[in-house]
């Protein structure tokens, strides 16, 4: 019977996987900074503010999550971005369309609750 606890390894895999895949959604949006008016405005804050908030949730926060720095704090904007994606941007879409955003949301909430684990910059400081 396996007696080792692999929680820290699981958190590392989760951080790398979900953070890395989130970057594939966020990095292409960086080029939209040259013309933010093309970006949507799901919350009525204006396309520039919406794009900046999206980039924080899809680029900055995932980078922090991947390296495990301030992971719990970084998971908050990432989760909020996925809440907006699932329930505002894709509000009228079917569950299959919302599924990616919801999966990311659950992962970021779990990372917020669990933290980065010991294989992270947060874990090294302890």
Bulk shape: globular
Oligomer: single chain
Fraction in helix: 55-70%
**Low-confidence region ranges:** none
Rg result: 16 Å
Mean pLDDT level? 95
Most strands sheet = none
Task: Summarize, please.
This protein is mostly helical.
Task: Explain how this protein is built.
- The chain is an all-alpha fold.
- The protein has one domain.
- Helices cover 70% and strands 0% of the residues.
- The chain has helices at 7-30, 47-67, 71-89, 95-114, 121-124.
- Helix 1 crosses helix 4 (95-114), helix 2 packs across helix 3 and helix 3 (71-89) runs antiparallel to helix 4.
- The longest helix is centred in the first third of the chain and has 24 residues, at 7-30.
- The chain is globular.
- The mean pLDDT is 95.
